[in-house]
């Protein structure tokens, strides 16, 4: 499974765990990654949850221990100011900058637990940090609606303490964009909140409408005027669209189209009907991947909601 963190972070991660010879990703999705670690010297097993929050990422090492790391090469946490983190309307808590490691750490385990538990409940956390040497103040909001589900997986893997929060996935929600420009009538992009790499793109009415399920920046399968299509063409002819179930077993794998006919309406792809049915069955914890440049594996969380939107707005057929 591909890591979504920038390459320089994988180097940083390697240096921080230089004496660990076994690192394995156990789960990836919802802007998170669970990694198991076995120390080469002691054989001690441990684990970590990485949460991606854009310019920063958080590493959770248990119910009461976390560190905030820079997720950008030009971000250096100032060492001569107080960084703050806040739960709701509570008083802000301070974070200390560890200069040799360029990270932020909570004052104690009690405060760390309160932050982790709030995030796991789906609460919004405010973070204020300062970028050295200008000491620019930067305010961002941290939230992951499925951290309770993710933490529960880590709890079972590593024997972490129960946080006492919901372990269920949150109900998928959609973010819908439609263009106000009359020339773009019919065009829409529908993304899954918390899994925005999975989306539906509705085509312009002037091109006959139609819509596709897209993965990352790659267009996938869908329909145009009742015909199953795929908008991703691989001229090499050796790239696949693959769907896996929640256990990682492949349940669908077919070659992508290898010739262009109409870039506006998509290429005929009868296999799209089976792909749609398999994706429906595999959602929400199965995955879909479109090979090619910038291809990635993405969870099918929210696929059913996207498809239902397509039924109501893009003449998709029912898969139930």
Number of helices: 5
Q: State the CATH class of the largest domain.
A: Mainly Beta
By CATH, the superfamily of the largest domain comes out as Invasion associated locus B (IalB) protein
Name the helicity range. Answer: 10-25%
SSE string, helix = H, strand = E?
A: HEEEEEEEEHEEHEEEEEEEEEHEEH
Structural class based on helices, strands and sheet pairing: alpha+beta
Radius of gyration: 22 Å
Query: Do you know the CATH architecture of the largest domain?
Result: Sandwich
Looking at the structure, the CATH topology of the largest domain is: Immunoglobulin-like
Q: Summarize the biggest pleated sheet.
A: 10 strands, antiparallel
Write a structural description.
It is built from five helices and 21 strands. With 320 residues, it is α+β, with helices and mostly antiparallel strands. The protein has a ten-stranded antiparallel beta sheet, with helices on one face. A seven-stranded antiparallel beta sheet has the order 11-12-13-14-15-16-19, with helices on one face. Strands 18-17-20-21 form a four-stranded antiparallel beta sheet, with helices on one face.
